[in-house]
Amino acid sequence: MTFSTKLYPNTIWGDHYQGDFQRLISDIRAAGISSVITPVFQGSRVFFHTEQDETPSPWDLRVFRDACQEQGLAFIPEFPLFHDPDTFDNIAQYRPVDTRGSAAIPQDWYKPICPSNEPYRTYRLDLIFKAIHELEPAVISLDFLHYPYFPGSDQYQQNPVNLPDFCYCDFCLYQYRDFSGIPNPQDDVEQWFLWRSENITLIPILITEHAEKQGMNLKIMAQMPSAPSQEYLEYLRRITGQDPRQWRDILHILSPNLHLNRFNVGPSWGLDIMENIRKHHGQDFAIMPEVDLPFVFDASEQDSRTGVLLESLKNTGTPAVTLFSWDLLRGDQGMIDKITSLAG
After folding, report:
1. I need a labelling partner for 120 at 20 to 30 A (CA). Which of 37, 42, 129, 296 fits?
2. Is the pLDDT of residue 298 over 70?
3. Strands, DSSP E only, in 193-259?
4. pLDDT at residue number 134
5. With a threshold of 0.90, does the pTM exceed it?
6. For residue 114, is the peptide bond before it cis, meaning its omega torsion is within 30 degrees of 0?
7. What is the spatial distance between Cα 308 and Cα 338, in angstroms, rounded to a whole number?
8. Of 222, 225, 68, 85, whose CA–CA distance to 136 is shortest?
9. Please, what is the average pLDDT of the chain?
10. 3-state SS string over 47-102?
């Protein structure tokens, strides 16, 4: 089993490492990690060179990528597509709208933008195309590739037979009417689900087309958010718009978020999700789950719970796992020992 870890720019250049790439990479390699997944933009901040940059930026992930390559650590750029606090805060009409016409959201950290918003989608795709050109990756990871969704809120337990809570902004309603000829989603719920899924699938299609035009052999990973394990894929299709049946021959890797610690659930929950994906798509995609680590380290049930899941994933033939995140892992020597024992 091989391991990747999420690594954020504020860790690379933060107080602990302060841009010391060699020390950071050495620590990560010593923990049994073979690749890092790093966001190349966050909100309006971009961590690669663009034509607007008059001078070289110290926050340029191209330099870090080169250092990773020199030390045998794979670098995978991550694109948080429809999560953008800056745009959400500054452009009110871009905020998603729920079934009651409200743009209020139930979580503070997550600031979603509706995937039906064509001007925003074009803006995000343009950034991705520029990043691919600058970073020349072999693999990219797409995060927040879904309609607004709030795991852990009331919606997390919502009956997926009903319409999802989000999104019913003007971008959604006008486009759905053009797609289906039906003004009200409630009049044909299945058409609503289909239209949303096609909007989500359009993103990797456009990325793939761009990469092919550039002569790039690019592999795409899609991160899939946490959801109830029973009928996991159908739940995501209805609530988030993600439908891997539409992703065949477009995407290559599925990365379900098995966040045990965040939702205080046991290893069987994550294993059930993996089984649900393998049952329906085991021949279509590689599966690289993301496992979260405890926010506070102690030698407790939380740590053993994560360890049990990792061991079970290896025993069931999972070849690769992403760990969320390096900030949580680097101070947990017990978990590092577990990972180094499972790596290879």
Report:
1. 37
2. no
3. 219-224, 253-258
4. 94
5. yes
6. no
7. 10
8. 68
9. 92
10. CCCCCCCCCCCCCCHHHHHHHHHHCCCEEEEEEECCECHHHHHHCHHHCCCECCCC
Q: Are 302 and 267 in contact (CB under 8 A)?
A: no
**Higher pLDDT residue, 154 or 82?**
82
User: Two tokens at 287?
Assistant: 């599966």
| Calpha distance 267→312 (Å, rounded) | 8
Distance CA 310, CA 176 (A): 42
Q: Please tell me the predicted confidence (pLDDT) of residue 49.
A: 81
Cross-strand bridge partners of residue 262: none
The residue behind tokens 């995060």 is: 143
Name the band, by pLDDT with cuts 50, 70 and 90, for residue 156. Answer: very low
Q: Rounded to an integer, what is the distance from CA 223 to the centroid of its chain?
A: 4
CA dihedral 9, 10, 14, 17 (to 10 degrees): -40
Q: CA nearest 147: which of 179, 105, 113, 175?
A: 113
CA distance 229 to 73: 33
Q: Is the pLDDT reported for residue 138 higher than 70?
A: yes
Residue 32 — left, alpha, or beta (φ > 0 → left; ψ -120 to 50 → alpha)? left
Backbone CA torsion sign across 42, 45, 51, 56: negative
pLDDT for residue 282: 94
Residue 64 confidence (pLDDT): 96
Judge whether residue 158 has pLDDT over 60: no
**Cα–Cα distance for residue pair 16/318, rounded to 1 Å:** 32
Q: Quick one: tokens of 140?
A: 């990219």
What are the φ/ψ torsions at residue 58 (nearest 5 degrees)? -70, -20
